[in-house]
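Hypothesis: this fold can be encoded by more than one sequence.
Test: take the structure tokens below, design a sequence, compare later.
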């Protein structure tokens, strides 16, 4: 267990708030759901596997965090709702966003948590490299589709994008964004996590430029933790890789509760309410690698992402949001 972990100490309640968390049926996503639920929020688990999501909901309701009485936990808890979301399908991304915009009264918190690692090279039905779409491009589109709803829900709205310390080893290959010429597991993963920081930075800038207030954006390194994200290690690396990864992280790194703290901190803490566009680690603002601080890199990735999604580049963010809103209405 990591001994130098900082915990989110905020006692803020989330009564009346609606939060959406992708990849919420296990790991730090599930732990974040539990925290928001305990604070009284209506928490939406946006998940690919409906059965696992249902099991997660039951487990969250039946098992309060350590040190909290069951009655106290359930009396102060909010609601848990499941929506279907498969980030490897942009049709699913649009359908989930459409359902959320139609059915939910508001969206105050969006945590783009879902992710994958060690996937072999393959293209999605949309023609994008699978890991790039799951970890970054799907969330990019999902966020844009939900932003108009968050505008109506502001102020006090927050978007949290999950990155990784491995972004330090990453670069954006603008000439071969899917790394088709020389695909390797880790460069693909590192690139996607760097992309999430650049997206955070550029979205914060564009929100300000478009005079859209009350929506703050954060990118987060949760820490090295034993979760199912490494489940493809046995087939991608060597038999037993998943077991040894979890053994290593359990002994020397953060547990799942600790790993969720920075996500929770950026989502609810009073101190972060006036911060936006920054990168966090261990419940503190941290300094990402130089590419993640390069405004031209961020703009270039934003424009490339829009082209990949066949979105117009002309105009400011308000114009773009009108376009994606029309897409949802079609």
């Amino acid at each position: 267990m990591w001994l130098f972990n900082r915990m989110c100490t905020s006692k803020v309640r989330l009564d009346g708030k609606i939060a959406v968390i992708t990849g919420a049926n296990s790991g730090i996503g599930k732990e974040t759901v539990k925290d928001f639920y305990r604070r009284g929020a209506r928490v939406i688990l946006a998940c690919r596997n409906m059965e696992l999501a249902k099991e997660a909901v039951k487990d969250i309701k039946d098992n309060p965090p350590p040190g909290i009485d069951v009655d106290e936990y359930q009396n102060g808890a909010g609601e848990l709702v499941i929506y279907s979301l498969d980030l490897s399908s942009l049709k699913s991304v649009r359908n989930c966003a459409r359902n959320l915009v139609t059915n939910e009264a508001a969206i105050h918190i969006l945590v783009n948590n879902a992710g994958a690692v060690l996937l072999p090279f393959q293209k999605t039905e949309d023609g994008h490299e699978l890991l790039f779409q799951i970890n970054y491009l799907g969330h990019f589109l999902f966020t844009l589709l939900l932003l108009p709803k968050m505008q109506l829900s502001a102020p006090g709205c927050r978007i949290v994008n999950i990155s990784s310390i491995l972004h330090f080893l990453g670069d954006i290959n603008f000439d071969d964004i899917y790394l088709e010429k020389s695909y390797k597991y880790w460069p693909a993963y590192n690139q996607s996590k760097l992309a999430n920081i650049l997206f955070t930075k550029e979205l914060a800038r564009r929100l300000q430029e478009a005079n859209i207030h009350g929506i703050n954006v954060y990118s987060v390194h949760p820490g090295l933790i034993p979760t199912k994200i490494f489940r493809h290690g046995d087939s991608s690396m060597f038999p037993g890789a998943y077991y040894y990864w979890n053994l290593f992280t359990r002994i020397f790194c953060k547990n799942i509760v600790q790993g969720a703290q920075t996500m929770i901190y950026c989502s609810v803490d009073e101190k972060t309410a006036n911060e936006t566009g920054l990168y966090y680690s261990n419940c503190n603002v941290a300094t990402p690698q130089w590419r993640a601080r390069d405004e031209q890199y961020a703009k270039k990735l934003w424009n490339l992402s829009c082209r990949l999604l066949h979105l117009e580049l002309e105009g400011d963010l308000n114009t773009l949001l009108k376009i994606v809103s029309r897409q949802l209405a079609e």
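The beta strands are 18-22, 42-47, 79-84, 109-112, 157-162, 215-221, 278-281, 284-286. The longest strand covers residues 215-221.
Hypothesis status: open.
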